[in-house]
Specification:
By secondary structure, the protein is mostly helical. It has 23 helices and seven strands. β1, α1 and β2 (about 30-35) form a beta-alpha-beta unit. α12 (about 280-290) runs antiparallel to α13 (about 300-320). The longest helix has 25 residues, at about 300-320. About 45% of the residues are buried. Bound molecules: flavin-adenine dinucleotide, ligand DLZ and iron/sulfur cluster. Ligand DLZ binds near residues 10, 11, 52 and 106.
């Protein structure tokens, strides 16, 4: 019988990952490698690199505990070749095994790299589909076939039926599929947030922190304090903590934003889920159980489960369905460079300064901050979507190609021309004012629509609509926006557009905005 080398990547830390499922502990060798190429292909936030390496080391120990033979390369090992392909070749030679098995990576970049490598390998290779997702490539292709536009809501209903989550006698629990209209409460006052569970770094994580500080300390983002879970056991405790402490109000305040409160009632579980420390059904069942026990309301349970079996699976489906060029699409032909304040936080716009500061400190921002603060600003200012995509890839601990592309290119920037969003997610400052307390402490006035202290979101929002009129004026979901703009008197409209032009000019010159 041929023995095999089983490659496990840094976001494949699940004991039942497909390539391991059919392998044999007695004969096969698992290989894992911390390599410079993966740590540097974008300038990842140091917390992401530390999380990845510490969780990889913990997973290698978990596998050894189960009786696997694991060949593990540390970043600072003298013989480390620096790349996944180099490490595969080295381990093949060292072990003399007869085949390479691996699970499909979550990015075309690595899929192509491994496919190219196959022809140079001395042994046959086999790639297994990543079945940790609830919707396979074939299922998504079947669902998408023949549809002109891809809308998450219909996909989500299929996923509910398929998984049976929150279903009663074939019908959605609570009598409706979606409780989003209950989930738009503005920023709560006088709440005390416990936030996600925090962990003292394990000894293995402490070693990694020193390594990352030394090698990647210059990247954007603060490494310490480091409070993330790095083992499966810790991640499960973080899940239990979320279900008990935050989930009951998750739905109500899902879209809210507050100064100095990065997490509110969000779970911060994406980092564990995307790396394989938790599984999607595991967390959805925990949420459903809490609802069945009467501990959480239906709008919270449904809202959360929709994100996981709906949005998460949907954005992955689009990434793989649309192919390699998807992240470089630019349907609105936006060419502006990413403003420096995305890295420095040095802006008078309090909403952006807050979002960037907590991104720097936690490698985290919640969905509405990503979509309606940094994403919205980039879209109305006309930032190049590929540059923005690269920024999101670098700064968030949960960032991987399969999940980022449709969120940035499709949902946030409308750069796929409306394949996944029926209208662009743009708003003026009034939406931000309604959902947050940011505007109260801002140098700009959210109420001012023109003049030097006018909120930049107010100016750029109308500028965006005006410059893209040919594309959007006929969009039924945007007619009210254009009606409001057209009803404004002509002097006011030109004052808004002039103000926006001046602001864009300041951005182009790198002046503080
Ligand atoms: P919660 O609010 O607690 O939500 C629960 C879970 O639902 C999350 O853990 C996540 O697994 C899932 N989820 C929710 N929304 C989405 C979504 N739109 N796509 C995929 N999963 C979702 N999510 C990532 O996991 N990685 C990314 O790189 C990423 N980049 C994003 C970029 C932009 C521009 C936008 C608008 C969204 C992005 N998201 C990304 C989706 C979402 O913002 C994050 O999943 C969420 O903020 C993670 O925090 P949380 O675990 O506290 O989420
Ligand atoms: C994100 C990441 C980092 C920072 N480092 C490694 C690494 O050294 N070795 C590894 O196997 N994986 C790493 N990863 C995760 C990969 O980049 C990830 O598998 C791909 O982005 C595909 O999703
Ligand atoms: Fe942001 Fe405008 Fe509010 Fe300032 S006034 S915080 S720029 S939305």
């Amino acid at each position: 019988m041929v023995s095999r080398l089983i490659l496990v990547l840094g976001d494949q830390l699940s004991p039942d990952i497909a390539a391991l499922a059919g392998a044999d502990k007695a004969r096969d060798t698992v290989m894992m490698a911390e390599v410079a190429d993966e740590a540097r292909y974008v300038p990842h936030h140091p917390k992401k690199i530390a999380f990845c390496f510490a969780a990889m080391r913990a997973f290698a120990e978990e596998l050894r505990g189960q009786g696997w033979h694991v060949a593990y390369t540390r970043l600072d090992d003298a013989e480390n070749s620096g790349s996944i392909s180099g490490e595969i070749l080295r381990r093949l030679e060292e072990t003399g095994v007869g085949a390479l098995w691996y699970t499909e990576p979550g990015e075309w970049r690595l899929i192509d790299l491994l496919a190219d490598l196959e022809s140079a390998l001395p042994v046959p290779a086999r790639m297994f589909e990543d079945d940790r997702f609830l919707c396979s490539h074939a299922d998504f292709e079947r669902w998408a076939e023949g549809r002109k536009s891809l809308r998450m809501e219909y996909f989500y209903r299929d996923m509910r039926r398929r998984t049976g989550l929150l279903m009663e006698d074939g019908a959605p629990a609570g009598g409706q599929w979606n409780f989003d209209h209950d989930n738009r409460k503005p920023a709560p006052k006088d709440h005390e947030f416990t936030g996600p569970m925090q962990f003292t770094p394990t000894d293995a994580a402490k070693e990694v922190l020193a390594l990352v500080e030394d090698r990647f300390g210059g990247n954007f983002g603060t490494l310490r304090p480091f409070r993330l879970a790095t083992t499966r056991g810790q991640a499960r405790r973080a899940l239990a903590h979320f279900v008990c402490r935050a989930l009951p109000l998750f739905g109500d305040y899902q879209d809210a934003m507050l100064t100095g409160e990065p997490f509110l009632y969000h779970s911060m579980l994406s980092v564990y889920l995307n790396a394989g420390l938790l599984a999607p059904l595991e967390i959805c069942r925990a949420v459903e159980d809490a609802w069945r026990e009467g501990d959480v309301p239906i709008n919270a349970a449904e809202g959360f489960i929709r994100q996981v079996i709906g949005w998460r699976e949907f954005v992955r489906g689009i990434y793989f369905l649309q192919g390699r060029d998807y992240p470089s699409r630019n349907a609105l032909n936006h060419q502006r460079g990413l403003p420096d304040f995305y890295w420095t936080g040095d802006t008078d716009m309090h909403c952006i300064a807050q979002t960037v500061a907590q991104t720097r400190d936690h490698a985290y921002a919640h969905h509405i901050q990503r979509l309606m603060i940094t994403g919205n600003f980039a879209l109305i200012a006309g930032v190049n979507p590929a540059e923005l995509h690269a920024w999101y890839m670098a700064v968030y601990a949960d960032a991987y190609g399969w999940v980022m592309a449709a969120n940035v290119i499709g949902m946030s920037q409308f750069a796929d021309g409306g394949l996944m969003a029926s209208k662009p997610y743009v708003s003026s400052g009034s939406y931000i004012d309604r959902m947050s307390d940011y505007c109260k402490s801002c140098a700009y006035s959210v109420r001012a629509k023109t003049g030097p202290d006018a909120c930049p979101f107010n100016l750029l929002y109308w500028h965006f609509l005006d410059r893209h009129r040919a594309r959007f004026a006929q969009n039924g979901r945007m007619t009210n926006m254009y009606r409001t703009w057209d009803r404004m008197d002509a002097d006011r409209r030109s004052a808004v557009l002039d103000g926006a032009e001046r602001l864009l000019d300041r951005l182009s010159r790198g002046a503080k905005v």
